[in-house]
Amino acid sequence: MRSEWISRLNYGTLKGPCRINVPLFNKVLNPRTATATRWISDFAALFVPRRCAGCDTTLLRFEECLCLGCEEELPRTRFHEDPANRVEQLFWGKVQLEAASALLHFARTGMVQHMLHRIKYQQDRETGLFLGKLMGEELKASPRFATVDTLLAVPLHRKKERVRGYNQAQLLVDGMRAVWPLPSVGKELMRVVRTPTQTKRGRLDRWLNVKEAFHLPDPEALRGKHVLIVDDVVTTGATIEGCVHALRAVPDLRVSLFTAACA
Asked: What is the per-residue pLDDT across 132-143, written as a single tens digit (0 to 9) for each?
């Protein structure tokens, strides 16, 4: 047991689940292995520590965006192989989808809400890419999504994207492509109407708000493809319906949906 614990003290490497601050122990026990860059990085972290995107506690070196506790407690849906899951039911009788799923359950005061808020309003690109990688890893192994040809982010209006600095859905797509390298096909879906926020609107108002908001500049490029629409969260499904409405001009197109979370 003692030898196994000591074997983990190899500076910068974690060989198993361990909540001990391994780099700190290595600096004390074997300071020659700690480079100047790492000393500077850890010294800077004393003043501007990296924070967990889920619970806001200080992260250890080997933790990316979530602490080990939050990563283990992520409320995964496990919807991917269930054709009658709650996300798919949102669209029954409205638009045709090959498959639909979400990675996580969303609660207004929970960990997932905190993560999405950081991505959308606190310029936290790192968490967006991290969440996208989790999405890609989960979905690329799913038989129901095995024929997907390309990923399509739900777009922001260019003025809103300019203010925010990026489109959070595109950030998720970039993270997904890092582990599931599907090509980009044709021109991206565009948001041509700057719609008011959907947060406090009912389902009908949301649909009226977005039904003509999207445009696909090059429909012929997607002919015969299986497109996966990607967004951060799905609630009533009105925004996704607007996207599918814009894609209906594409011949022989199949559309699926995957979101980071479902409310």
From this structure: 999 999 999 999
